[in-house]
Amino acid sequence: MHILILGGTTEARRLAEHLADGAPRGLRVTNSLAGRVAAPRLVPGEVRVGGFGGAEGLAAWLRAHAVDALIDATHPFAGTISFNAARAAAAAHVPLLALRRPGWVPVAGDDWRAAASLEEAAELLPALGDRVFLTTGRMGLAAFAALDRQWFLVRSVDAPEPPHPPRMEVLLDRGPFTLEGERELLRRHRVDVVVTKDSGGAATAPKLTAAREAGLPVVVVRRPPVPEGVPVVADPAAAARWIADRLDGA
């Protein structure tokens, strides 16, 4: 049985590790990485890097490599590949499962402002503050490029490229982040508003606690929906059980 994992996330890596630790004989796992990060973390199993050429290219790859099941464990905001995966799986008649970490939920004391997109988040900022901690990654900074009054602290794994905000400092770093570190970062840079995507998970959640403690507003960009009809699980163990069920029925 050949499993293709569309990965690049912590959940995808943990699923691959889970399958490698207890993989039954005959299970082949291929991990697909988009190649947007210069130095991705190592993952067990076969690895391919780069795109497929849209839904048609992915469907052709599934057929050519006799893939028996497809796991979409991409980032919650990788909407294009998720919809391509749904179309490709349907065309190639391959079962598809989406592995998505749960989104964040506000608690008492949080001052969250919902935004449907990065562009909408940018529209909210002039009324919220002048010193922005932008944690949405290096992709999509063009949405904030017209804001010349605000100063941005941009945190990303790799250095961003233009277009981006004219007043910007880049912090190259990769989670997980600590609560103490996030408190110090907000204090040192005199941040007065935080912008984040609803990525979910624990690795980057401490910034939300630090913002709540400091009484800062947080603009939270809502994640796109999973394609209609695609089953969803919230953790790698559940995805592994889904795969095991298909092995048992093979």
TrEMBL record:
Pathway this chain belongs to: Cofactor biosynthesis; adenosylcobalamin biosynthesis
Gene3D superfamilies named in the record: 3.40.50.2300
InterPro entries xref list: Precorrin-6x_reduct (IPR003723)
Keywords associated with the record: Cobalamin biosynthesis, Oxidoreductase
Class of this enzyme: oxidoreductase
Any one GO molecular-function label of the UniProt entry: precorrin-6A reductase activity
Species the sequence originates in: Streptomyces spectabilis
Xref: NCBIfam families: precor6x_red, PRK08057.1-2
GO-annotated biological processes: cobalamin biosynthetic process
Pfam name, any one: CbiJ
EC number: 1.3.1.106
Keyword Oxidoreductase part of the UniProt annotation: yes
Protein name: Cobalt-precorrin-6A reductase
